[in-house]
Amino acid sequence: MFQRFACSRVLILLAGLLLATACTAKSGAVDPYTDGAEYVTLPAPHQRYSSEGKVEVVEVFSYGCIHCAHFAPVADALAKQFPKGVEFKLLPAPFSAEWVPFARAFYAARQLGVLDRTHLALFQAKFEQHYPINSMNELADFYARAGVDRAAFMQAATSTQTTDQMKSDLALIQKWQVDGTPTIVINGKYRVAAVHSYDEMVAVTQWLVKRELAGK
């Protein structure tokens, strides 16, 4: 599982781009990463999060995870680097009773169309500004401060639709054999595994995406 470490944000994209270039420098060069080490090929049949044709990169995360908070701006920058044939998605992991409210908040924000402007802000409020954000009421207060109707948020977060989506997504997370966060899964086929830094996580992701785009 993903080892816990401090986030290195300055060199992240440069390291990934340099590594992607190095991978194609020589014809027939040995792969820089090993199946079963830096990444894992998941058992078939492979199941994607959606049926869209683009190469799919999914980050399994939680707003309750400080490592996800550290990785969030890196993931945001990474998502903006992908070509048109690649789509980055977020998938909340309700791994515990304490994390269920965070998953519900994600689905509500997405349903209400405010996810883009609240995703990083929630991490910042919880882990940098140290707001007490854990319960549904505290989460509702956060979204209200962000200009979201509190009642509409609570209705969306606690709806049957959200509960069903959360259960379905948890089953997929389990199928992908994800046991910690943040974890990246590519096309429901590869799971980034034993990496030692966020730089390496990004580099492995970019390499696997390139392989999928090439049809390997």
What report would you give on this structure?
By secondary structure, the protein is α+β, with helices and mostly antiparallel strands. Helix content is 48%, strand content 11%. It has helices at residues 12-23, 66-81, 100-111, 115-128, 136-145, 150-157, 160-175, 198-213, and strands at residues 39-41, 55-61, 86-92, 183-186, 190-192. It has a five-stranded mixed sheet with strand order 1-5-4-2-3, with helices on both faces. Strand 2 (55-61), helix 2 (66-81) and strand 3 form a beta-alpha-beta unit. Helix 2 (66-81) packs antiparallel against helix 4 (115-128), helix 3 (100-111) crosses helix 6 (150-157) and helix 3 crosses helix 7. The longest helix is centred in the middle third of the chain and has 16 residues, at 66-81. It starts with 11 loop residues before the first helix and ends with a helix. 37% of the residues are buried. The model is unreliable at 1-27 (pLDDT under 50).
